[in-house]
């Protein structure tokens, strides 16, 4: 449906047919993996994400304004569960005004440094055979290394680095 942001470039945001949160726009495609990990793979219009993590959020965004299928620069981002050391939570019921209590989590301890970040286990396929390189970025957006792409006549694929959060495809 219409986002109502009032900008010329505003695009529609919709849920995918299977109910997963997804941005079904030509220039951005987002998938948030289910917490249960019961659906490890999800095909969006031009990107397929297959996660080996129990939870994660993956996104592919065109950096040159072109649709992902023809973009010459795409940012792929993947985040997994991150919690401070010692984080503790437990299931609880939460009172909601005028309604029955709902299931939720109570935080028992916020923990502290250092943060524990679950290593990424993600396979990515992009329907764009014109892409020829993949560069891993650090948390400051600086190039760290290149990784191999697997190619076919219609798409490229790669294994997301287990300790990264960003990859730029060119």
Mean pLDDT: 84
Major beta-sheet overview: 6 strands, antiparallel
User: Which outline best applies?
Assistant: elongated
Helix content: under 10%
Task: Note the beta-strand portion.
Answer: over 45%
What order do the SSEs take from the amino end to the carboxyl end, as H and E? Answer: EEEEEEEEEEEEEEEEE
Oligomer: single chain
Q: CA-to-CA gap between the ends? A: 31 Å
Q: Which residues form runs of ≥5 with pLDDT under 50?
A: 1-10
How many β-strands, per DSSP?
A: 17
The largest beta-sheet arranges its strands as 3-6-7-17-13-14
Question: If you compute it from the alpha carbons, what radius of gyration comes out, rounded to the nearest whole angstrom?
Answer: 18 Å
Helix/strand-derived category reads mainly beta
Instruction: Output the number of helix runs.
Output: 0
Structure, described:
The protein has no helices and 17 strands. It has 170 residues and is mainly β. The chain has a 6-stranded antiparallel β-sheet, with no helix packed on it. Strands 4-5-12-16-15 form a 5-stranded antiparallel β-sheet, with no helix packed on it. The two termini are 31 Å apart. Residues 1-10 have low confidence and may be disordered.
Annotation keywords:
six-stranded antiparallel beta sheet; mainly beta; 170 residues; disordered N terminus
Summarize the structure.
The protein has 170 residues and is mainly β. Helices cover 0% and strands 50% of the residues.
């Amino acid at each position: 449906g219409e986002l109502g942001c009032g900008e010329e470039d505003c695009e529609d945001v919709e849920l995918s047919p299977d109910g997963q949160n997804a941005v079904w726009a030509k220039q951005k495609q987002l998938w948030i993996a289910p917490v249960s990990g019961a659906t490890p793979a999800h095909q969006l219009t031009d990107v397929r994400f297959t996660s080996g993590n129990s939870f994660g959020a993956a996104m592919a965004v065109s950096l040159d304004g072109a649709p992902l299928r023809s973009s010459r620069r795409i940012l792929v981002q993947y985040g997994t569960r991150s919690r401070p050391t010692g984080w503790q939570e437990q299931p609880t019921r939460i009172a909601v005004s005028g309604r029955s209590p709902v299931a939720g989590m109570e935080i028992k301890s916020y923990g502290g440094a250092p943060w524990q970040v679950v290593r990424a286990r993600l396979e990515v396929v992009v329907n764009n055979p014109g892409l020829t390189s993949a560069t891993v970025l650090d948390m400051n957006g600086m190039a760290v290394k290149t990784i191999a792409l697997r190619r076919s006549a219609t798409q490229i694929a790669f294994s997301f680095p287990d300790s990264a959060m960003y990859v730029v495809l060119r």
